[in-house]
């Protein structure tokens, strides 16, 4: 007796499944192609708010303790650091300082590994973290955050080394009603704090998002 | 009355047909796996697109977009709302605006017609060109204000990784220009895999650029 096995039903199931998967793939592809990142529109504006400076580099953030930094820098200045244009340790976040007549106090960031002052931006997602505590101290009615964001690309990186950290921190601050401003920096053009009376480039302004 | 043969058949063990489903399941799961794999790969590799339309607005503020790349800048000036402004101004200004609109449309069309990688379209910003652009934006904004037309152009910088040099050059010129004093500025960090897409014109896969 010849047993004729019909594979119609199995072929049917397989072709249906494959067809559905192909449809899913095509739909997801179309969705991906149509997905467009709508640029937010942050616009800088003058403000009476005072800046709290933050450096973003290698996915980590350093909230600058300006009191400490300027005290250390002032001590170095009295020892002739400004004249000799030498870099000196600021005893904070592995930063090296340099005093420049036009650019004010320049912050060189060499190596942030092992520094207790730098915090990875992921810690913002934790219920409590040192970074959160520091950013929480910013009073939205009196202060805003100003970020020096490192724009240096690593081997396989598709982003400036501080871009993502800045975005996450800005998002967190926005949820708290704190305004943010930023500018890109790199090793050749490091972060600096100076007074606007020295140069119009020494203006640190917050931005508001036009879409918000 | 049943025959002898039929009685025997009734008590014979049933001759069941056993079919192994393994090869079918194997093919089925393989196809599913491959398709899922392709889907995941495509979702990872397909770059996000930035909606880089020529008209990006926040209320009455209209973005004059400047994309800052390692090799220079790409500008995307607004046009459509400018045409509405043209309709409410007097003849002399209307002619000036017509020239500006014509120049901008020609520029946008050139960008759209460019068949190569759009990143190659980035040009080193020349000081004279920046000064002219600032004058143009100031002229437009002042005319809009004079005619009580709700329209204000501001410069929106989109900064790609390692694109801050060109941005800094433009900002340095702006810091010393009287024309720029009244122009608002916005800036956003962009990742390398965010592609530029001007109304379906050539796209830039910046991932390739970052890999260079």
Note the gap between the termini of chain A.
78 Å
Structural class of chain A: alpha+beta
Could you give a short account of the major beta sheet of chain A? 5 strands, mixed
The total of beta strands of chain A comes to 12
Kindly report the oligomeric state of this protein.
heterodimer
Radius of gyration of chain B: 31 Å
Number of domains of chain B: 1
Any overview of this molecule?
Chain A is 30% helix and 25% strand. Chain A is α+β, with helices and mostly antiparallel strands and 212 residues long. In chain A, the strands form 3 sheets. Chain A has a 5-stranded mixed β-sheet with strand order 8-4-3-9-10, covered by helices on one side. Chain A is elongated and about 100 Å long. The N and C termini of chain A lie far apart (78 Å). Chain B has 212 residues and is α/β, with parallel strands linked by helices. In chain B, helix 5 packs across helix 6.
Secondary structure layout:
The complex is a heterodimer of chains A (212) and B (212).
Chain A: H1 8-34, E1 36-37, E2 42-44, E3 50-57, E4 60-63, H2 66-78, H3 81-84, E5 88-89, E6 95-100, E7 104-109, E8 119-120, H4 130-136, E9 143-150, H5 163-175, E10 180-185, E11 191-193, E12 207-209
Chain B: H1 4-11, H2 22-45, E1 49-51, E2 57-58, E3 61-69, E4 72-76, H3 80-86, H4 91-113, H5 127-146, E5 152-159, H6 164-175, E6 185-189, E7 195-197, H7 206-211
Parallel strand pairs in B: 1-7, 3-5, 5-6
Antiparallel strand pairs in B: 2-3, 3-4
Helix pairs in contact in B: 5-6
Care to give the gist of this entry?
The complex is a heterodimer of chains A (212) and B (212). By secondary structure, chain A is an alpha+beta fold.
Which terms would index this structure?
heterodimer; A: 212 residues; alpha+beta; 5-stranded mixed beta sheet; 4-stranded antiparallel beta sheet; 12 strands; B: alpha/beta; 7 helices; 7 strands
